[in-house]
Automatic annotation (TrEMBL):
Keyword Disulfide bond attached: no
UniProt protein name: Putative transcriptional regulator
Molecular functions (GO terms): DNA binding
Keywords linked to the UniProt accession: DNA-binding, Transcription, Transcription regulation
A GO biological process held by the record: negative regulation of DNA-templated transcription
Family label: Belongs to the BlaI transcriptional regulatory family.
ATP-binding listed as a keyword: no
SUPFAM superfamilies: Winged helix' DNA-binding domain
Pfam families assigned to the protein according to its UniProt record, in alphabetical order: Penicillinase_R
Length: 136
């Protein structure tokens, strides 16, 4: 499936579900080897070592990861942050389903009967956004 959105100012495709799982491990660890990522992912679902290796090589080629070769160990580091990835996906969903309107996306999400604590957090975020810089 061809992804239509990329990260702002970069020619990097959005990660697939499997790539998001790998990125999640690496974001949490800061960096990772194929072995360390494989170990964590296998706690969730069994995967072959070579499957994880190939996936990480593909992510390297796509520009989602970089690799640091230290002696005989290959450390993989994320090129994209978790926040950038979330923003890129929100923009893609907004573009595909809501004609690019974040308001329409937010209105739809609020219409899904959010939990009370979610509503409180949304209100707090809006209040913080509306407050002039420097005021608490």
């Amino acid at each position: 499936m061809k992804r239509i959105s990329t990260y702002p100012d970069r020619e990097i495709p959005l990660p697939t579900e499997a790539e998001l799982e790998v990125l999640g491990v690496i974001w949490e660890q800061g960096r990772g080897t194929v072995g360390s990522v494989h170990f964590v992912l296998n706690e969730q679902r069994a995967r072959g070592y070579t499957t994880v290796l190939k996936l990480m090589q593909i992510m390297l080629a796509k520009g989602l990861l970089s690799r640091l070769d230290k002696e005989r160990t290959h450390f993989y580091l994320p090129i994209v942050t978790e926040a950038e990835t979330r923003a890129a996906y929100v923009l893609e969903i907004s573009a595909r389903l809501f004609s690019g309107s974040l308001f329409a996306l937010a209105s739809f999400a609020l219409g899904m009967t959010p939990a009370d604590e979610d509503v409180d957090e949304i209100r707090a975020a809006i209040d913080a956004h509306d407050r002039p810089a420097g005021r608490q």
